[in-house]
Amino acid sequence: MATLKYSRQREAIKEFLATRKDHPTADVVYQNIREIYPHISLGTVYRNLTLLSDLGEILRLRLSDGVDHFDADTSLHYHFICKDCGSVIDLEMDSIDHINASAGRNFPGQIDGNVTYFYGTCKDCLLSKPMEIS
Amino acid sequence: MATLKYSRQREAIKEFLATRKDHPTADVVYQNIREIYPHISLGTVYRNLTLLSDLGEILRLRLSDGVDHFDADTSLHYHFICKDCGSVIDLEMDSIDHINASAGRNFPGQIDGNVTYFYGTCKDCLLSKPMEIS
DNA sequence: TATAATAACAGTAATCGTTACTGATTACGA
DNA sequence: TCGTAATCAGTAACGATTACTGTTATTATA
């Protein structure tokens, strides 16, 4: 029953993701893996990204830009999205899971967790922007 | 330049949203408005939902289900998504904007805000589920 | 009030990210 | 080595959303 078989394409996808800290999309993964396996199919990339995230080996990030991003770092951490350049950056910060209790205080259902990301302007975009006259 | 003109379709969409607390999708809005304006186009619904959210009169919620939800309540509040039935419910809780400071502590960019929602099982789904044997 | 300019419309086609299908290939236990 | 089933490449289909086109309705102005 659905024994997982080795696949070099899946390994390549996993290895590629591990080298990246910028949370690439499926298409970016596809474009990069094609340099190693020129005949790989986009469908294979999607299937394996879904499989790996179902297995918990990678994270699927659904941000507000309508495209899924993938992250090889499955430890608890948070993300920042630059609204100027769209880049996704890891944040080093303490857990904010205490907000779950706050959310559950007046709520009759069961709260299991939260999805949180931060947005603003990244360092590079701050520097490249013209000075604001204040 | 681009003076806003009145449209009865847009008014109907706004009024419909104001009567609902369940954050309907564009298609749900479409199906309901059709009872009043049977010839309204889905494109008109999308165009006006986008226009209204650009004007800040409604909120566009991008959750993880791949479909946009819309909310006539533009005041600061948070949402809960039931992972069993998918319903979107308002939470009554204090602001959690203090997490922005926590996120900015070791981050060189500028943090403007956060997107946060909670997930779990709603009251109705808890009740309708078979008892867990513990 | 009549007219002209143009925002908004209905209907439909196109786009885009993603998923499903199909027949060929590959991994791997017996 | 062989059989079976997972995986593949290639491609078609899908669903949400957006863009296009010719028509209609709103509104400023004459």
What would the keywords be for this entry?
34% helix; 22% strand; 134 residues; alpha+beta; homodimer; two-stranded antiparallel ribbon; three-stranded mixed beta sheet; DNA-binding
Task: Describe the fold and architecture.
The structure is a homodimer of 134-residue chains. By secondary structure, chain A is α+β, with helices and mostly antiparallel strands. Chain A is 34% helix and 22% strand. Chain A has helices spanning 8-19, 26-33, 42-54, 98-104, 123-128; strands at 59-62, 68-71, 78-82, 88-91, 110-121. In chain A, the strands form 2 sheets. Chain A has a 3-stranded mixed beta sheet with strand order 4-3-5. Chain A has a two-stranded antiparallel ribbon with strand order 1-2. In chain A, helix 1 packs across helix 3 (42-54). The N and C termini of chain A lie far apart (66 Å). Chains A and B meet through strand 3, helix 4, strand 5 and helix 5 of A and strand 3, helix 4, strand 5 and helix 5 of B. Chain B binds a DNA duplex (30 and 30 nucleotides) through residues 2-10, 25-27, 39-44, 46-48, 50, 66-68.
Task: Outline the fold blueprint.
The structure is a homodimer of 134-residue chains.
Chain A: H1 8-19, H2 26-33, H3 42-54, E1 59-62, E2 68-71, E3 78-82, E4 88-91, H4 98-104, E5 110-121, H5 123-128
Parallel strand pairs in A: 3-5
Antiparallel strand pairs in A: 1-2, 3-4
Chain B binds a DNA duplex (30 and 30 nucleotides) through residues 2-10, 25-27, 39-44, 46-48, 50, 66-68.
